[in-house]
Amino acid sequence: MKVSVIGASGRVGKAAAFCLAEESVVSDMVLLSREKSLDQIQGEALDMKDALAAKDIGVSITPSSNFEDMAGSKIVVITAGVPRTPDMTRMDLAIPNAKIVAQYSKLVAKYAPESIILVITNPVDVMTYVAYKASGFPRNRVIGLGNHLDSLRLKNLFAKQFNIHVSEVHTRIIGEHGEHMVLLLSSTSIGGILFKDFSQYQSLDVDAIIEKVKNAGSYVIDKKGATEYGPAFAVSNIVKTILNDEKRILTLTTYLDGEIYGTNDVCLGVPVKLGKNGVERIIKVNMSDDELKAFKVAAEVVKSSTQELMSKLPEELIN
Ligand code: NAP
Fold first, then answer.
1. Between 1.10.10.60, 3.20.80.10, 3.90.700.10, 3.40.50.720, what CATH number should domain 2-144 receive?
2. Above 90 in pLDDT, residue 64?
3. Which of 10, 188, 290, 293 has its CA 20 to 30 A from that of 112?
4. Can you tell me which atom of ligand 1 is nearest the CA of 65?
C-alpha cells in the first residue's frame, strides 16, 4: 500500500509521515516537497529508516520533489501550507493556502487519479472544498481532517474530568474546525452510558469546554511553535482505517449535499463511515435544538467564506 505526503518537510507532514511509516499497513511512503527542501526530506527519510530498523519495520521511504513519484498511491495526504501564527485565525490563511492546495490537488489528479486525497492544510473545511473542486474527484475520495483532532481533544478533557480511561469516552465535535465547532453532547457516552444520565451533566459548563477545545491548537502553537503529534496520530488513524477497510465512524470533513438537515454545497466536519473507498456514508446525527442551531451557523459561516474565497481564486486553479 502506497501513501504520499505532500508537505513532508513541514512539521505536521514529517510527523504524520513517520507515524504512518510505523503502521505495518503502509509498504511504500513518498515524502514530497518543493526542490528547495529536497535535502531536508532526504535527511528525514534516512532518519526515519534508522528509527524503523530499530523496530524491524521495512517500509520503503522515497524523498522526492518530482510529483510523478506519487503515482500508484492509495492515499495522498496534503499538509503543505502556510501555518497559523498565534495571532492568526485559520481563515487568515485561506487565500495563500487555497492556491497551494488547488495546485497540488491538480497534480494528484494527474499522477494519482485513483487515490483518496486527505487534506490537513488549514482552514481545513474550506481547503477540502478547494481540493474537491480542483481535483475533480468524486466527493467520497476527498476528505479533510475536520473535527477528528478536536474530538480527540474533547475525549481527553472528559477522561480527565471523570478520571476514567480515555477509551471509555465516545464523543464528537462536528461543524467547522475552528470558531464554529459544535460539541455533540446529546450523543456523548461514557462507558456506554449516555452522558446526560450522569449527575455531572447538569452542572457541566459546555461553553468553557468548547472554548478549551477551540483554543487547544493555539495553546500548543503558542507554547511550542506548532502542533505535531496530535495531527500526526489523527492522520494515522484515518489512513489506517481506509487502508484496512475498517469502516470506522470518524468525524471528518466531507462535501455535503443535503444529507445533514439539508445542508448543501459546503464541506464540513460530520460523522462518516470510512473504508477503502473513502467516505462510504455520511451519518445523519440527531441533534438537540441548540446543537442544530450551532451547526446551522457553522454551515452558513463556512459556506460564505468558501464562496468568497472561490470568487477570488483564478478560474484555472479550480476548474
Ligand atoms: P510548516 O512546518 O511551516 O510546513 C509547511 C509546509 O508547507 C512545508 O512542507 C512547505 O513545503 C509547504 N509550503 C509552504 N509554503 C508553500 C508554498 N507556497 N507552496 C508549496 N508548499 C509550501 O507547517 P505545519 O506546521 O506543518 O502546518 C502545515 C499546515 O497544516 C498548515 O496549514 C496548518 O495550519 C495545518 N494544520 C492543520 C491541522 C488540522 O487539524 N487540520 C493541524 C495542524 C496543522 P516546502 O518544503 O515545499 O516549502
1. 3.40.50.720
2. yes
3. 10
4. 47
